[in-house]
Amino acid sequence: YQVIILCGLSLWVTISSSFNVTQKLRSVTQPWVTRRVAYGTPIILKIQKYQHPYLDALFSGLSCVVSVPFYTAFLPLLFWTGHCALARQMTLLMAFCDYVGNCIKDVISAPRPSSPPVRRITATRDEVENAMEYGLPSSHTLNTVCLSGYLLHYILAFTGANGASAQVVGLSLVCLLVFLIGLGRIYLGMHSLIDIISGVVFGLGILAIWLSVSGLIDEFVVSGQNVISFWVILSFVLLFAYPTPERPTPSFEFHTAFNGVSLGIVVGVHQTFQQFHHENVPRVFFSPQFTVFKLGGRLLVGLPTILVVKLCIKSLSKCVLPVVANALGIPVRSRNVASVEAKKQSVGFIKKFLFFTDEKKQSFDLDTGIRLLQYAGLAWSVVDLVPSLFAILGL
C-alpha cells in the first residue's frame, strides 16, 4: 500500500500538470466565491461598526492563540509533558489541515474582503503574512474546528468522561471557541462569511476523516515497516503535489514548514518510541515524580536547544544543498547569492539527460529544500535530541 500511495500521488501530479486541472477548477470556483465575498462586505461593515480597542485586542489575541506559531510552541510542550500520543496526533493533524486548507486556498485563489471599505487589522507579523494569502477557506477556523475537536475527543477518552453532561460541556466550549474565532476573523477584516462557513465545513470533514484513520496512522508511525523511507519520499512528493496559485503567496511556505515538522516527528518518534514516547511515560500533574519544577527545567533546556538546532541546520543546508545540486547537475533557484552561483554552474549530466528547457519551471527551489530540512531538524530535536538531554540531566 505504501507503493500504491506514492505512485498514486505521483500519477496525480503528472495528470494534473498535463491537463491543467488547477486552472480548470479555478475557472469554475473562483468567480462564484469572489461574488460571495463581495456580497458579504455589508455584513463585515455592520460587525465593524462596533469596533473598540478592547475588541481589537481580544480578537487579535484569539487569532494568535490558534495561529501556526502558537502550535509550533504548544506541540513541543505536549511532548515534554508526557502526552506523546496526543502530541504526535495533533502534529500530523495540523500538517494535514495546513496542506488541505492551503491547497484549497491556492486552487480557488479567491480574494479576501476589499480593504477599503473593510477595515483590516494586522497587529502582528504573522497576521501580515496571513493577509497575503487567499481567503477561502479560513485557515484559523478550519484549524480550530479540527484541533479543538480532536483535543476534546482525546480528553474525553483519556479521562474516561463518557457521561452526557461532560460531552455537552466540552462540545459547547469547542463551539464557543469556533464561533469567537470565526467572528474575530470577520471583525478583523481578514475573511468574509463564506470563508468562515467553508472553514467550518472543511474542518468537520477533515476531522471526521482523521478520527477514522488516526489509529492506523499512529500504529504505522510507531511500529510500521519502512516508515522513515516512506515518509521521506512522501514529504518530497507532497512538495510537487501542491497546486500553483494565481499569484505567489506564503501558503506554500507554511505547508513546507509543517511538511518538514511532520517528517521530523515521524522519524524521531519511530526511532525512540520505546525510550521516550510509550504510553507509560510519566505525565506532568498525573505522576508524582514529574513535578512542575521538573517541567520548568525541561523548558529551560528544551526551547533554546530546538532553536539552536533550527539555526544550525538552516546554515548547514545553505552551504551543503548548493554543493550537492552542483555535483548532481540539478538546476536550482534561490534568493541568496550562493544558490544563484550553484544555479549558474549546474550543467551536469542529469540536466542534459532530462532535457530541461524551461529553467524556471524545471529548476528546484533551494529555499524550499532549506525550509523543509530546518523544520524537520527542529521537530526531530523535539522528540529525539531534547528527550535524550532530559535523560542525561535527570529531567
UniProtKB/TrEMBL annotation:
GO terms for cellular component: endoplasmic reticulum membrane. It is found in: Endoplasmic reticulum membrane. It comes from Genlisea aurea. Belongs to the type 2 lipid phosphate phosphatase family. The keyword Electron transport does not apply. InterPro entries: PAP2/HPO, PAP2/HPO_sf. The keyword Transcription regulation does not apply. The chain crosses the membrane at residues 57-80, 141-158, 164-184, 196-217, 223-242. This is Phosphatidic acid phosphatase family protein. GO terms for molecular function: sphingosine-1-phosphate phosphatase activity. Residues 87-211 form the Phosphatidic acid phosphatase type 2/haloperoxidase domain. It is a multi-pass membrane protein. Gene3D superfamilies: Phosphatidic acid phosphatase type 2/haloperoxidase. It comes from the Eukaryota. Keywords: Endoplasmic reticulum, Hydrolase, Membrane, Signal, Transmembrane, Transmembrane helix. Residues 1-18 form the signal peptide.
